[in-house]
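Q: A reviewer asked whether we had any structural model of the full assembly, not just the individual parts. We don't, so I'm hoping you can provide one. Inputs are below.
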Amino acid sequence: MQTDVYAQGLASKIPPLDLYFDGRTTAIWQDGNQLTRAGLLDRASHLAKQLSAQGRSRVATASNRADTVAAAILASKQAHCEIVLLREMPRDLARLEQWGVSAQVDDELGLQPVSENAAAATDGFNILITTSGTTGEPKLVRHRLEGLLGRIRPRPEDRPPARWMLSYHPATFAGLQVLLTALVSGDELIASSDFSVKALTNSALEFPPTHISATPTFWRNMLVAGGNSLSRLPLVQLTLGGEVADQPTLDRLKAAFPTGGITHIYATTEAGALFAVKDCRAGFPSEWLNNGIDGVRLRIVDGVLEVHSPRVMAGYVESKAKNPFTADGWLRTGDIVRAENDRVYFVGRADSIISIGGAKVIPEEVEGFLLEMPGILDCRVFGVRNVITGYVIAADIVTQAQDLDTFRKSIRDALMPRLERYKVPRIINFVDSLEGSQSGKKKRINGET
Amino acid sequence: MNYAETKDKLSEIINARLVATGNERHPLEDATALLGGSLPLDSLELAVVVLEMTKMTSRDPFASGFIEFQTLGELARLYAD
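A: Here is a predicted structure for the entire assembly that you could use as a starting point for your response.
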């Protein structure tokens, strides 16, 4: 585990969370309703008094509302309490007790007792979020505020407030970063408790944002859902995170928003915010492996990226959780990368590998080839379990092509010369859209038809 | 589905896969070897054929593990009533 010395150094350059709370400006447009900074602070103070009066040391919220989550964070900070941000309440509330959560904050900022037996040993205010749990039980990760704010810079005085659109659930790491950025920078946040692409696209057209941070999957869906009307958006900054930013998606965004800056962020729930790539190219410069970037050191071990960062999590809450740190204190990210000339490319997740008769297929790699094909708007590659080969590769494809049989054949013809045969999708389903998860990421499926 | 109907369905699925993968339709007999013979079907395409048969018949003869088969007739028999 790393020390927080570097993080504490960074913290001295970070503005306090309430720097811009002058009370007059809008903090959040939640589902079309305006909440001023003064209003947000009032709500937070009211909740903080209850937290202190009841002696709570760790509470949770599973609200979809950014205004509720923002108030709960500020209140917990005031009350020196830990706040657990969840995307949904566990089906078994005993899980909350195991996590040491004694009460939950509801949508209206009411405090509902969960268990008076829950005991949490805390050292004051921290923010706890869960991993996505795509490969097993979600784990609870503790972050200190200094680490979370480590890559956020205060807004220069001559820049007017930006208006961010929150496309992520506020309890995801990426959503929390957008929320904290807006709070710290004195920017406005557009938030919807409905995270569907349709609802968020409509919300963007009604309250045009200057900044949007979203997954590549979300951006591709938004381009389909918004069509030409998106050109009305006054976007100055487009950020991609949460998934591999592939070159075709970066190119499509550049074509759709030629004047906007395009950045892809590399961050994980455990590693925190690591770095941002701003040259509109997939991957990151190889020289960062030697020189580091933004205080982060990088190395590749057995094809997997390992990082050493001042913004890394403080640790898992449960002591039983498998330690992801190496003996020398680096964090194994689970992201498979490939170094090629001056660039390091993200290939996929080590835990999403599909085994076909012993050969390994990384779905993201196949998706990258598919997205290069004209006519493919989005796709998801997955394995279908079978008795003959273990798995066979399948793809759900979003397209506007009319003659689907011909298109299916052209996909196969295009991929066969470029990929090993076992990597070529043998089952191709044409779908209207891809179901996303609450984190905005492509929902990974395996062993299903 | 009786054996004859199952075999016809299986033949239909195999030929559809052959055409989809740029091959000609192929005459299919009970004794046609599914892999390793003259049929231009690789193991991954055979896997898709098995998945399609399972979906169509709502029957999974391999649910408890692999059962050996080599010919079209042997596979059809696994799915027939």
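A: Points you may want to mention in the reply: Chain A touches chain B through 18 residues (CB under 8 Å). The longest helix of chain A spans residues 37-53.
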